[in-house]
Hints:
Layout: H1 13-17, E1 26-27, E2 35-39, E3 45-52, E4 59-67, H2 72-87, H3 92-118, H4 121-133, E5 136-139, E6 146-149, H5 155-173, H6 183-195, H7 199-218, H8 229-239, H9 255-264, H10 272-284
Antiparallel strand pairs: 1-2, 2-3, 3-4, 5-6
Helix pairs in contact: 4-5, 4-7, 5-6, 5-7, 6-7, 6-8, 7-8
Amino acid sequence: xxxxxxxxxxxxxxxxxxxxxxxxxxxxxxxxxxxxxxxxxxxxxxxxxxxxxxxxxxxxxxxxxxxxxxxxxxxxxxxxxxxxxxxxxxxxxxxxxxxxxxxxxxxxxxxxxxxxxxxxxxxxxxxxxxxxxxxxxxxxxxxxxxxxxxxxxxxxxxxxxxxxxxxxxxxxxxxxxxxxxxxxxxxxxxxxxxxxxxxxxxxxxxxxxxxxxxxxxxxxxxxxxxxxxxxxxxxxxxxxxxxxxxxxxxxxxxxxxxxxxxxxxxxxxxxxxxxxxxxxxxxxxxxxxxx
Length: 291
């Protein structure tokens, strides 16, 4: 049962065209019960469908379209479809809202997928460098004041990390979407570095590449279930017993060399703390980590 007074007389195109702002709502005949036409203050004429929701039992009104963009016959067809939904226990407005929400979520998912595809290894590395490793300037959102934030490394270290990642990781994989990099890609990269005899460099690249990926994953720039390919590569290289640390040094200072170093140290450019550490190490023979 519809909750509006309905006349037996059907709507006509002429009657709708004759409507003026302030006119009463016009309703269709019994066959299209619930179809209504209103004329707003601007003269815009709108088709609506008024009915009682089979889901909530409440009176609901849903917009169908504007006249004359939507023809009267088209409005009646839409009402017919909505009546069929109601007959199945479905609220047309609620169903429309659900469809709109599903379309919105699908659009957001597509946009996220496109953003992931466009996010290359170069982008990932640059974000890690500029937001973590290097000094940067940030603006306080409340005051607009700018301030300098020191990076995770000292200036020399910042340059070294940038050189390390760009000379190898970006050079080889920079063009690839970060989400498409596989364990094998990173293993091949590290093996290439090892093959040219740069064992320490290989370890440095892998360490920083792992950190760069971890940062991107933490910021949700990659899919939720995305595994860090650099971590996987590290595990594979460890299983294969591939070393990325320098060979243990065997060179020692002779008594004459030791005397020369101790004599040179006080006037060197090192800081007092560094001089003390070096002097204590030479005197005692302790490991530098223990010192």
